[in-house]
Amino acid sequence: MTLHDFDDLRLDHLDRDGALRQAADNLERTSRAGFLAVAAGSVAAAAALARPQAASAQLATSDVAILNYALTLEYLQDAFYTEAERKGALSGPAAQLARVVGAVERAHVKALRNVLGKKAVKRPFFDFRGVTEDPPQFTRTAVAFEDLGTAAYKGQAHRIKSPEVLAAAVGIHSVEARHAAWIRYIAGTPPAAEPFDEGKAMPETLRLVRATGFVVGRPRTGARGAPRFTG
Amino acid sequence: MTSRRARRFLLAAAAAATGASLASLAASGGHDPAGESPSRAPGPAVALAPPAEPAFSVPAPETLQPSRFESTWASVRSAAVVRAAPRRGAAVVGHLDRRTPEGTTNIVLTRHRAKDSQGSLWVRVSVPALPASVTGWVPRAALGGYGVVRTQLVVDLGDLQLTLYRAGKAIFRAPVGIGTAQFPTPKGDFYVRNKLARYRNAFYGPLAFGTSARSATLTDWPAGGFVGIHGTNRPDLLPGRVSHGCIRLRNEDIVRLARLLPIGTPLRIRA
Fold this sequence. Notes:
The structure holds 2 protein chains of 2 kinds. Chain A is an all-alpha fold. Chain A has helices at 11-14, 19-32, 38-50, 61-87, 92-116, 135-157, 163-187, 202-212, and strands at residues 125-126, 215-216, 222-223. Chain A is 61% helix and 3% strand. Chain A has a two-stranded antiparallel sheet. By secondary structure, chain B is mainly β. Helix content of chain B is 13%, strand content 37%. In chain B, the strands form 4 sheets. In chain B, strands 10-9-8-17-12-13-14-16 form an 8-stranded mixed β-sheet, covered by helices on one side. A 5-stranded antiparallel β-sheet of chain B has the order 6-5-4-1-7, with no helix packed on it. A two-stranded antiparallel ribbon of chain B has the order 2-3. β3 of chain A pairs parallel with β12 of chain B, so a sheet runs across the interface.
């Protein structure tokens, strides 16, 4: 299955801002190319270490694509928890989780944007359709998001060329797994029910994200027509 | 030797052997130097590489700082009746369309939320109306995603001045033209809902912002008589009471304002 095999999923409807499409296209392009030479990627990553804030130009193309994919999912989580905290509909353990996890997801976004620099995909626009304002729905969705985020990181780990990028990615992955266990505990779901976790491929992850309907087109608040205001 | 004593002896011997092995391993730095212990079976005592340094670090998480300067807006996803209370059957106070007269996505400022007896979520919103904005309730399902701004725009009709605040600090000021006594600029709390550009009409200057404010006197004006904030081809008249209710800025000022003013910004027009 190639990444374009899920055209029938109408990614454009999921992703009117193009952020996910950009991440998908980048991953697909690097897949077709067989990724760049591993040695070159390693050298580039080693060089990136010396100047971590200007690293994106020196990362392998495939690693940039994977980091952008991760950034897109982090945007989703960041927006979800931040909105939940702003709306103030949660209380008790769920409110505490939203506050703590939201701060962590914002930090992940900041880190990924820093390392990607100008190559970072832009933030999509989200419509959580009231889920952030309804405690039971919030909890169920948070369980799904954290399980998905954990599986998505795992699903790309074997494709990361740079050991240094992999080290950073697994550092985030285990944090996502802790979040998943925490929200599962709050939801009354076994935090660690399985002895082995599968990773999730990108098409499957995007399909699940699309099914939420949470990624929408940015409202069109600009136009070129002549004004008809009173003057 | 009884079986219990034999078991104790074996356990003690095993513990001693394990301790000796660990001590030996520690003393050799984890290596088994070739030739020094030929009788020991080769094991996995190879030097494992230290963990790679992460390519980037994650900054310390920062908690959300609640701010009294934040305002939230939402797009209108579907046309809706605005009601006086959060329940179906409450008095109608207005209607919301998906589009503005300019063809842009309609947005509203959101304030509170409530659930009705069926458990459905309602949101209190500001709605353009005459003679001034009103607030009312719409089902959450009629609204789209939320946006957040930390800006506020204030037009002082007495001082003929516009001020943009960000997080409570003034970041932009400019003299303005406002409505004449016959066509006064309405006072009250409104919001900026769209931006028009690249049109060819020197009267409005290079840029125009649409607001939720409506003229109380020009009710039959095309497109509903909404008040805009725009440039002008008569900067010599500013500041002054010269317009049909719109807020006019010099062209260089409206261009500067456009770089700072996000859509959804609350607008207060005061005497």
